[in-house]
């Protein structure tokens, strides 16, 4: 029998944060703000682990000189946040492989350790991380029969999608595009398995 959906959780590309730290969302935002990456929280990776994934800073916070502010306000460069920032995160995996001429295995290993640490110890109150989880019952309009990267909170070793974040039109289009890719991949796999 298949495992209950709540027992399934997948790494999100944004967690691959070791050898390519300058290419994942938190360090990129931190560098733009002149702070360390631990001063950035709640950057979301929505969707598929592919070039359609959407790194979203609309709900992220940055601690600058002891004061927490919205990432958009701290970065002060909407063109970068909607352009180069997104494309760099989306194409990160291929860039690591090309630059190193090797897989990003150590980056993946570090991400697995971080993923398990988060499940074991949970997330801080008011904070969330991104994790690929079953989309059933989500409040974001994502098809329910997918594994999709959402913002999640973890308590008592159980994840829960962080529901109710307002989604603007820009984010909605990006979230829907990555969901459409996952639907296509799911349908292709189901067709293959039914033969």
Structural overview:
It is a single chain. With 195 residues, the protein is an alpha+beta fold. The chain has one domain (5-193): Lactate dehydrogenase/glycoside hydrolase, family 4, C-terminal (L-2-Hydroxyisocaproate Dehydrogenase, Chain A, domain 2). Helices cover 39% and strands 19% of the residues. Strands 1-7-8-9 form a four-stranded antiparallel β-sheet, covered by helices on one side. Strands 2-5-6 form a three-stranded antiparallel β-sheet.
Keywords:
single chain; about 200 residues; alpha+beta; L-2-Hydroxyisocaproate Dehydrogenase, Chain A, domain 2; four-stranded antiparallel sheet; three-stranded antiparallel sheet; 9 strands; about 40% helix; globular
Order of helices and strands: EHEEEEEHHHHHEEEH
Mean pLDDT: 87
What characterizes the major β-sheet?
A: 4 strands, antiparallel
Walk across the major sheet and give the strand order.
1-7-8-9
SSE topology sketch:
Blueprint: E1 9-10, H1 25-33, E2 40-41, E3 44-46, E4 54-56, E5 61-64, E6 67-70, H2 71-75, H3 78-82, H4 84-90, H5 92-100, H6 105-121, E7 129-134, E8 147-155, E9 158-161, H7 169-193
Antiparallel strand pairs: 1-7, 2-5, 3-4, 5-6, 7-8, 8-9
Summed up:
39% of the residues lie in helices and 19% in strands. It is built from seven helices and nine strands; from the N terminus they run βαβββββαααααβββα.
